[in-house]
Structure formats: C-alpha cells, structure tokens
Amino acid sequence: MYPDRDFDIEHPLPWNALDLAQDLELNALFTAMSREDKFLYEVTRRAVFSSISDIATIRYRQAILADCLAYPDALRQMYAIAVEAEEGKRGYYWISSGRYPSSTLTGAVGLLEFCVGILRKLRKATDAYHEAFRSPGFKTLCATLKEELSDDYFDVVEAHLKRLKFKGGALISARLGAGNKGVDYILRRPNHPDRNWFERLFGGGPDAYSYQLHPRDEAGARALSSLRDRGLNRVANAAAQAADHILSFLKLLRAELGFYVACLNVHTKLIEKGEPICFPDVSESNIRRHWFKGLYDVSLALTISDRVVGNDVDADDSEVVVVTGANRGGKSVFLRSIGLAQLMMQCGMFVGAEAFAANTCVGLYTHYKREEDSSMTHGKFAEEISRMDEIAGYLHPNSLVLFNESFAATNDREGSEIARQIVAALLEKRIKIFYVTHLYKFARTLWEEKAHKATFLRAERQSDGSRTYKLAVGEPLETSFGEDLYNEIFLAEKQRT
Amino acid sequence: MTSILFPVSPSAEVLADRQPDCFSDLNLDQIVAAIIAGKEEYNLKPFFHLALIDHEGILYRQNVFADIENTQVLENVRRFATRMHDMRAHVAQSEKMRNTYEAEAWFLEAIAMYCEAVRELATQLDAAAPQSIGFERFRQYLLRYVGSSAFRALVAEKEQVESQLAGVRYSILVQNGGFSVLRYDNEADYGAVIDETFEKFKRSAATDYLVTFKERSPEMNHIEAQILIFVAKLFPDELGHLNRFCKRHRVYVDDVIARFDREVQFYVSYLEYIDKLRGAGLSVCYPVIAQGSDKCIFGNNIFDMALAHKLIGAQSSVVCNDFSLDGEERMIVVTGPNQGGKTTFARTFGQVHYLAAIGCPIAGSDARLYLFDNLFTHFEREESIENLRGKLEDDLHRLHEIIETATPASIVILNEIFTSTTIHDAVFLSRHVMEQLLSHDVLGVWVTFIDELSSLSPKTVSMVSTVVPDQPAMRTFKVVRRVADGLAYALAIAEKYHVTYNALLERIPS
Questions:
Q1: Rounded distance between C-alpha atoms, residue A482 and residue A282, angstroms
Q2: What does the pLDDT look like over B332-353, one tens digit per residue?
Q3: Which of A478, B18, B90, B246 has the greatest CB tally within 10 Å of its CB?
Q4: What are phi and psi of B422, to 5 degrees?
C-alpha cells in the first residue's frame, strides 16, 4: 500500500467518515468492492478513507493495481494463501493461554511449522509471477520474499523446529543463586549436536553426573519438569513471538492484497456493465485541475441496471465550480461523481470515467442539506451552520468542499449572503469548492465577479422540458424550471383524467 | 560495654518485665502496644516498663532521640535493622535446611548481610556525625570494630567464597525420567538464537509470553538438592571452601552490635508512633525535667496519645489542653459536666509524666515536668461496680496504701473515687484523703464532682471542663483553669434530646 511503510488497518477513520459515506453513497461502492466479505469491507473502508495526497504513493498503487488487472489470478492466489494463514492459525489459538512454557513452546513450534508451510507456498506463488509483474510494489515483494525466504533459510528454520522437540533432551544452563539454589535457567543449543549424548554422559568420566528418577517419584518428576519449564521460558517466549510476528506479517499481507482484490471486484462489475474506467492523471494539491470526459457516479452505476450518463467538463484552473439549473437534472449525481472520483483517485484506484485529471486535495468535506434534526437541538438553518462550524475546524488550504444546496433553509437573500461569505472566505484560504445551489443571488454574484476562474455549470433542459442529465457550461438562471416538474406531475395527472 | 539506652547499665533485676500499676489506668498499655506492634522480635516492652530513669538517663535518651530525629541517622538505623533482620531470617533458614551445601549458602548469605550492615552503618554514622553521647560512644565502638583485623579477615574471606561460587556455571541435561549435570561449556542461548532466526518478521511490539514463576519455598526440592550434590562434585574447590568458612565462623555477631540493634528500636518505634501524631498537625516536644523540691511545672497543648491515635484514624480533631502549677500549688481538682474531657485530662497528665520519665518526647508543644519516684493512679472502673460495699472498701484500702507509700516526690492521680457512696460520705472521705495528700506535698490531679475540693487549700487548683457558651449541649473538651461553678449542663442535654419537662408534656399523649 505504501512504498515505505505498512498499511495500518487499525488507523482511525476520519471524523467525517459517516457524512462522506452518506453523502457519496459509499456503501454501494464498498459492498461491490468487498463482495460482502467482512474483512475486505473493513480493508476497503480504511483504504478509501485514509485518502492519500502524496502523488508518488498514488502512482505506486496505480501501478500495482495495473499489474493486478493484468494478472488477476496471481493476486487472487496470493490472497488465498494469506487467508489460509488466518484461518489455519485458529487451530493453535491455545498457545497464548499457556501457563507452562513447555506447552507454549509445543504450541509455538506447531504454529511455526504451519507458518513455514504457508510461507513456502507464498514464496512459490510469487516466484511464478516474478518476471511478469511490472510494478515496483510487486517486484519488491517478490524479490524480498525470494531473498528473505530462501531455501537455506527454510532449512535453518526447520532444523530449529525439529531440535525444539528435544528428542535428545533439553540442555539447560544455570548458576548458583540464593541458598545455592539454581537460578538463571537458560536453554542452550548444544555445541556438538551430532555427538551422542548418551555416550558422552553415561559412558562415565569425571565431567558429568547422572540421576535416574524412580518411576514412582511423582514429586521428582514434577520438580524436574518445573525446572525444565524455567529453562524453556525464554525460548518459548521467543518462539511464540516469532509465530506472532509471522502471522502478523501474513495478516498485513492479507490486508494489503485485500485492497487490490477489492479493486478487482468492483472493476469486474463495472466492466461487465460496460462502464468505462480509467486511471486518473493526478496533480499536486496546490494546482487547480479538474478535467474529465464521461465522468459518472460509480455508486449509482453499481446500484441501477441501466448505463449512467457521464459528464464532460473542463474546469482546469477553476477554484470554484458552481452548478445550477433544473431540478432533477443530475446535479446531485454530478456532485457525487466528483466526490467519488476524488476518493477513488486518492486511494490509488481507477475512477469511473473515460478520462479524468484532477489535483489531489488535503481532506475532502461534504456539506449537504440534511433532514430536520430529530434531536431538536437546532433549527434547520442553525443545524447547517453548526455543521459548517464543525467542518471549518478541520479545513486546510487545498481542501476540497462539496456543497449541496447548503444554506437554503432560509430565504434567498440571507442564504445567499451566508453562502457568499463562506465561499469567499474559503476561496481566500485556497480551498477548492464545488457548489450545487438554487440560491440565484449567490450564484449570480459569483458570476458577475468573474473571479477565481469560477466555472458555472447548468443542468440542461431540453426545450420540451425533458432532462438529459447532462451538465453544460452556462450562466446561472433565475429559474430552476420547477414549473416543469409542476407541469409534469400535475398536468400529466390531468391528462390522464 | 556500651548501650544506646543507658549511660550506665542497669541491673538485671530492674529490667525484669513487669508492667507498672498505672499503665492500664493511663492507657499507657494501649500506647506501648501500638508503639511496639510489628517489632515483636526485639522484645521492647521491658524498656517501656522501666520508669525509674534518673535525670542523667533521661537526658541521655532525649539526646539520642534528637539524633535519630535527624532523617539521615534514622534512615541509616532503619537500613541496618532491615539487614540484621534479614540476616537472622537467613540463619533461621539455614538451620532448617537438610542439604549441607544449601544450609551453608544461607549461612554465608547471613554473614554477608551482617558484614554489609555493620560496614555501612559505620560509614554512615561517621558521616552523619551524631551529637549524643550514646551515639558517639557507639560510633567509636563501631569504627574500632570495623577496623579490627578479625572483622576484616571475615569480610575478605567471605568475598573470596562468594566470588568462587558466583563463578560456578553448570548445565543440566533434562531427559525423560532423569537428568545429568555437567559443566557449562559456553553453549549459545537458544532463545537468542530463535529471536535472531525470526528477527526479519519483527515489526511491532510483541505479546509477552514469559511466565513468572512463583517461589513457594526457599528450600530446595530433592531434585534441586541432587543437582547441587552433583555440582559440588563438579566444583569441589568452591563448595569445599564454603564448608570450611561456615565451620570456622559459627558465631560471628558482636554482642555490643547485637545489643544496639535491639535497643535502638526503642527510639525508632517511638518516633514512628509520634510521627503519625505530627502528621495530623499535633505537637510533640522534649520536656524540661524539674526535680527535687522544684515543683513548678506546666504543659502546653498536651493531649492523650492513645485517644489521639484513635481520633486520627477516625479523621476527628484532637483537643489539646494546658496546665500549670506554680508556687505552692500541688493538686489540680477537675470538675465540670459529664463527657467533658475530665478523665482524658487526668490521663494526659499521667501520660506526659510517665513518658517524660523514660526519656521520651511527649504529646504537647512545650512542657516542664516533674521527675517522680512513684506514679500512683486510682481510676474507678464501671465494670467493677458489682458490690457497693466491697467497692468502697476496696477504694479505701487502695487509697490508704497510696497515702502510706507516697513520698513528696510522688504523683497521684485520682479519678472519681467515692461515687459508690452518698454525697455526704463522699465529701467527708474526700476531705480526709485530700488533707493527707496535701500534707505529703504530692503533685497530682483529682477528678471529682465535689466542687468544694477545689477550694480546700492554697495548694489546690480548680480546673473545669467547658461547654460552648451558646450551646451548652456541645462539649469543647477543653479543661481550663476556672473556679468550679457547679453547673453540669445536664438541662442542655435534656433539651437536645427533648426530654425536658415541657418537651415531655407535649410529646406524651394524654
């Protein structure tokens, strides 16, 4: 996920994750990506929300995703191995509850043997695709596994695991502590493992003394095994931790690969529907870029069976995009497609468009009008303002804010004035804005100022009143063609009667 | 021979363990029990029972106390005591051991603790520069002892034996049903080898799987003992030396040092006890000692230590009182309402005198107290009122004995005697007893309801337990010098509990 660090699946979601999910209908996207696999759902959510603004990392992921699209089987095979590790380890859950180092060790050795099996498989799978992969991410992974998990290494590990079963006995060193009692029991690796212990020890000689427990000496057996446990304590800890580390490596691998598996999933679905996808052309956050062809709302596409309408816009250099126009003309869908594309781009994914270029943003925020606050803490307008207050606490230069009919819960004059002041301030702070509005006065003022290279889009309406759901550049109009709707609904009824 | 408790050693007879008669009346038994709690190993009680310390002896102790109040000295003494305690525990443990090598190791450790304790104390006492004669004598003794060739030889050989044993490293090969013991041959720590092997997978902090083993007994089981026997065979020089060393030094503790270790706990335990009082904001002081015919005494902010300990535990405040006797004044007559602190005042008077007489700091901000030859008390106890006649008889017998024995150097404390007879008899008897006590010229406190006792003679001083002026039901527990007024404030209490005439008329239905 990152060229230089691990993907943190525990990383907290941004404070406005719920708002984003609701406003951009992210659940449709997450569901399609995860195919309702809980683990993948979680990974997807974390990845999409932990929006990255570093272009190198975005390109790093794009390259990996390209490899995945080219060799989906390779990805799915590697992912399956990581899943196998997660499922298989459950058979060894008891090692963590061991009160006796010897049983911890036995458990850990068993688990390590299992892990070694998984690692061998993984190594084999990556070996097969090493040459084919072109992304630095996969190339590094394959090379690392090849180097770190060499055949020699596996031999060493397996020799240890065999020896840790102590067929020849456990050699434990000690020294004299308080009361001449043995202390500092430490398991030792014999210097001459090949020599026959029995011969050396029982063959006589002044340098070793042996004792055989009486078969009925249960106290003696307990004492001896407690002593052995003391000796094994450190090595049991080391082995159990090693097993934990390998498992956490595999878990991390599963999460990282999982993200790409999720991308594959949604890709498959969109391609089946015939929707276009493309890898976005990313610019730095301080650039102003929004240029696209056929940009559509991926969540909508995943929800309805029909093809969805895409938009072509060139808003390069614009700091603010104002969308006005007909009711039910596709304004909200358009705004959602902007937000979705931004999030998908900034997690390294493709976007739903024929072509797409945009700058990254430092934080994406949505301010949509909401239902009446059921807790009755605020009036509707106050509620909007308080949400704005909250968002304002997080804004930075080069953030992106999507407003959807904000501040309309009052009259046009007041709403416009509020909107104007807020937008003016945000623009001053180099914050990029997309604003869908019916506040004519507000839109008109921006139009007349001709500042900030504002782009004005209008939901189109055919002369017969029908909608194309396409947006076109155009100055804000005083009407939203509400009459059309009135006519459509009321007159249609009349005609029928 | 030097003692930290006595400038001149008392005879064994004087030191016999018998609790003075006044102890339970004055609650001194409670105080001493609390002081020595947890110090049973030192058998400190007899030191508190020996009140007959001379003037010189009191100063000797007061000065030692002052030295120990220096935190540095106290800390040194405490460390020393801990080590000596551990040393004795090691000897006791050694004696329980069946395995010789094991017993000897415990004995060696005991000697090591002793050497360390003595050497450290010598160095630190030297640095702390105590001022008292007691400590100065002991410091000199200790320095001579530590510098002696015998002690130095003991330390040197002990260290040699220790370092030999520390060098003993061996390995045990544990197999099914048995084990072998051999010399350690620098084999690699297998835990470290495993860590290293799997190092590459490490990224974050790992769960700790180390098991903490509880030591149930310091003794070895027979497997450990058997291992030790084998170790002794593998290392005959090291364990042989240990054996010879232990045999040669069966007795190693110096008598004077052992005596200091016990006696100094008298001071330490007392200071620990009064520290709790100081912690609650109460004052403790070293009284000036008057003696002979000089009977001008006073005590400011004195309080009952036993009661204070109880009150501090219950987070209640402690009331302090003052007294003073000048010129020919000898006897404080305390009158006043019930539950007003009269008995406590009498006890306090006795406590401060007793504790001052054994050289201890007392409960009060400053005081000048009398060094008595005998401290007589007579406190009536409720539980003993089973036979009125017998009781009065007993009282009179006891008082007679006191009057017969008392000298002008005695202190007498009487608490509500003659309550088991008519007021007429009580006045009569009291006057007679009072006259005789005054003619003996004893110092004392007399708690009574008979107001006229307080004005019998220029030698009597009237003190009254007081109430809050506007709320007579509230006791202040203050006992002040004032003419006895005969008010017992009983009505106030009756009102408080609605049992006055009017209240009862209203409450009781007709």
A1: 38
A2: 999 887 667 888 999 999 999 9
A3: B90
A4: -70, 160
